[in-house]
Design a protein that fits this description.
With about 90 residues, the chain is mostly helical. The protein is about 80% helix and about 0% strand. The chain contains 5 helices and no strands.
Length: about 90
């Protein structure tokens, strides 16, 4: 969350810091006339970052919703534990 706030408040600084962590100095800077920049302008990368962030957030929320410990799941798990304990007691009594 902190990274998202930093990116929104100071995109240029965030962008430069991010790239300085993963790339050698000067290897990620391009002139405006370079083909890479003409094919993928700054807005593309901003949109891509927002999309990746949104998809990551949605995926995390979906996993959380799918694995949330509901009362039904807790009850079912407790029943399994009780049945296992009862079976162990019966087998131990033989």
């Amino acid at each position: 969350m902190l990274l998202a706030v930093a990116a929104v408040l100071g995109w240029q600084q965030f962008f430069a810091l991010f790239h300085s962590l993963f790339f050698a100095e000067g290897s990620w800077t391009f002139r405006v006339s370079d083909t890479l920049i003409r094919l993928y302008p700054t807005q593309f990368w901003m949109d891509a970052a927002i999309t990746v962030g949104a998809l990551t957030l949605l995926g995390a929320l979906a996993v959380m919703a799918a694995t949330w410990p509901t009362a039904f799941r807790r009850h079912r798990a407790l029943d399994r534990v009780r049945r296992r304990q009862e079976l162990k007691r019966r087998l131990a009594g033989r």
